[in-house]
Amino acid sequence: MDTSYSCQPLGHVQTPFPDKFGIPRQPRLARHAQGVLRLQPPFDRAEAVRGLEAFSHVWLTFVFHQTGGQWQPTVRPPRLGGNARVGVFASRSPFRPNSFGLSLVELLDVRTDDGVVLTFGGVDLVDGTPILDIKPYVPFVESLPDARGGFVDGPPPQLAVQFTAGAEAAIAAAMVARPALRELIIEVLAQDPRPAYAEPSARIYGVRLYQYDVKWRCDGAVATVLALDPA
């Protein structure tokens, strides 16, 4: 029996997240996080996406390409405080035997006038992630409101997000090129991207979004954006 397989990426998605730190831990938590995927040959044919525009959401199968092939039989999910361990197959950890991920995203646009370009909303993928497959989301079989969620019993609490006057001015200038930047910053920081084991402190964190470095700190349940600098 053949025990090895090879996969050719359909393309590499462009996202606002050049680094892993700050990426929402699940898809669709930051709806203004858009991803753009240009299909590469031989998959860049209009007929390959014919009918796809009729679906509002799609599943993306992708590769955790920055994990370096590492895996562990148990992991420490952030939702359990970063201390309790569960089996890797009871988690969505990127450190898996086969570094495949699955993400449910909104399909915002399908363009076929110059190859095939797809735009997604609510992405949770690092910039340059290889996409292996695209499948339409079918609500009547894939929406299960009564399903059990294990230790993930609902959305996590969110931080309130506020801005200093200097940060507001810098963001306003940057929004000429990135109109949804302020909303994206709020959505990302509201999820509290700090490590689960982070101790309360006055530490200043940096999250890179597009070509910007967002400097912020957390005071209790409030994230304060201090500055927006070129990365």
From TrEMBL:
InterPro entries: TrmO-like_N, TrmO_C, UPF0066_cons_site, YaeB-like, YaeB-like_sf, YaeB_N_sf. Pfam families: TrmO_C, TrmO_N. It comes from the Bacteria. GO terms for molecular function: tRNA (L-threonylcarbamoyladenosine(37)-C2) methyltransferase activity. Residues 7-146 form the TsaA-like domain. Keywords: Methyltransferase, S-adenosyl-L-methionine, Transferase. GO terms for biological process: methylation. Belongs to the tRNA methyltransferase O family. NCBIfam families: tRNA_TsaA. This is tRNA-Thr(GGU) m(6)t(6)A37 methyltransferase TsaA. It comes from Andreprevotia lacus DSM 23236. The lineage of its organism: Bacteria, Pseudomonadati, Pseudomonadota, Betaproteobacteria, Neisseriales.
